């Protein structure tokens, strides 16, 4: 799945790019609307992410013009303007809306959902070891019991369930849920896994593979 990310903040653009790549997406980036024109003239995308306010103007107006000309790629708008009227405007021409500041892990989940929508039909639920992950509704169940998880916990758990009993390296999980500024030796993943284990309950299904990472097994 190929995604176009348009963001004029260099640090945020790099972080989003790294996180989407870590989640398995092919990513092209642009800093302003003229670069978007070039990208759209040479590539086909499954989803596009636009910061609302860019040097060349409001990207909502740009997307509206494209929509009127028949462009149908799903669009996620990013903005620091979180008022109700701003969200209504964004959803009038886009498909999703995320207010800044946001968790990059949540953006990854939303982009994946939009890409699947573009592919046609809802994504099937993932099931392994008594866990059920619904990528469309961002829902998690264990043995039919709903669990409340954060956006980062959802991304990590989804990656582990997709692996279906195979170990997932620490670096891969960190890249999927955080950005490239988090070193692989950081304990942020260990803290998140401890939180997930408490939420998942007994018997334990989230196991450590020393020197590698984590896996979901048993239950």
In short:
The protein has helices spanning about 10-20, 35-40, 60-70, 85-95, 105-120, 150-160, 170-175, 190-200; strands at about 1-5, 25-30, 45-50, 55, 55-60, 75-80, 95-100, 125-130, 130-135, 140, 145, 170, 205-210, 215.
Care to describe what's here?
The chain has helices at about 10-20, 35-40, 60-70, 85-95, 105-120, 150-160, 170-175, 190-200; strands at about 1-5, 25-30, 45-50, 55, 55-60, 75-80, 95-100, 125-130, 130-135, 140, 145, 170, 205-210, 215. It has about 220 residues and is of the alpha/beta class. The strands form four sheets. It has a five-stranded parallel beta sheet, sandwiched between helices. A four-stranded antiparallel beta sheet has the order 8-9-10-11, covered by helices on one side. The model has no long low-confidence stretch (mean pLDDT about 85). It starts with a strand and ends with a strand. The protein is built from eight helices and 14 strands. Helix 5 (about 105-120) crosses helix 6 and helix 6 packs across helix 7.
């Amino acid at each position: 799945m190929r995604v176009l990310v348009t963001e004029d903040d260099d640090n945020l653009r790099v972080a989003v790019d790294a996180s989407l790549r870590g989640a398995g997406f092919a990513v092209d980036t642009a800093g302003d609307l003229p670069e978007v024109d070039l990208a759209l003239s040479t590539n086909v995308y499954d989803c596009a992410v636009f910061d609302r306010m860019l040097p060349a103007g409001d990207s909502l107006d740009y997307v509206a013009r494209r929509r009127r000309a028949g462009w149908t790629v799903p669009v996620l708008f990013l903005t620091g303007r979180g008022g109700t009227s701003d969200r209504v405007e964004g959803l009038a021409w886009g498909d999703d809306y995320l207010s800044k500041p946001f968790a990059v892990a949540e953006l990854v989940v939303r982009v994946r959902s939009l890409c699947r929508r573009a592919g046609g039909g809802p994504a099937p639920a993932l099931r392994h070891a008594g866990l059920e992950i619904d990528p469309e509704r961002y829902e998690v169940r264990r043995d039919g019991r709903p669990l409340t998880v954060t956006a980062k916990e959802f991304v990590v758990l989804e990656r582990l369930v997709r692996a279906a009993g195979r170990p997932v390296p620490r670096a891969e999980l960190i890249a999927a849920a955080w950005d490239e500024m988090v070193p692989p030796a950081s304990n942020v993943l260990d803290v998140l896994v401890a939180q997930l284990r408490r939420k998942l309950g007994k018997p334990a299904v989230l196991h450590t593979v020393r020197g590698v990472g984590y896996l979901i097994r048993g239950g």
